[in-house]
Amino acid sequence: MPESARLMDSYTEMTEMLLPNDTNNLGRALGGAVLHWMDICAAIASMRFSGRQCVTASMDHVDFIAPIEMGEVAVVEAYVFDVGSSSIDVKVDVHAEDPREGTERKTTTSFFTFVALDDDGKPTQVPRLDCDSDAEQQLRDSALEERQNQR
Question: What are the structural domains, with CATH classification, of the chain?
Fold first, then answer.
C-alpha cells in the first residue's frame, strides 16, 4: 500500500439516464435509486484511493434539493476528502442534466464513510490524503467545512 494518495486519484464520475424503472408515479427519480448510485460512486472513489476493497460504514443526512425528471441524466461525482486509520470520507454530489437544453442543476449532496478491508475482511490502514494542488486543497477544505456545517 502506498503511504499517500492524491485526492484526484479518487475522483469518480458516473452518469445514469433516468428511465421508467427508476422513477416514481410522478416521473421523477426514486430516492432509493439515487442513493444506490451515490453509494456505488462513493465506493469506487474509496477503492481507487485505497487500492483496497471498501465497505460503507455510514452515510450522513441527505436532502433531495431538486428532482431528476424522466429522460434527464443524473451525474454523480465523488471524491475522498478525509481519512482516518482505516476509514475514508467521501463527498458525493448529484446533478441533473438535460442534454437537450444544455442545463444542469444540483439535486443531492451527502457524505459517506467507508472502511478499507484487508484480504481477510478486517479493517486495514489507508494511505494518507495528499492535496498536490490548490484546487485539490480547496475541494478538501470546502467538503470539510460543508460537512461540519451540516452536523
Answer: 4-150 (3.10.129.10)
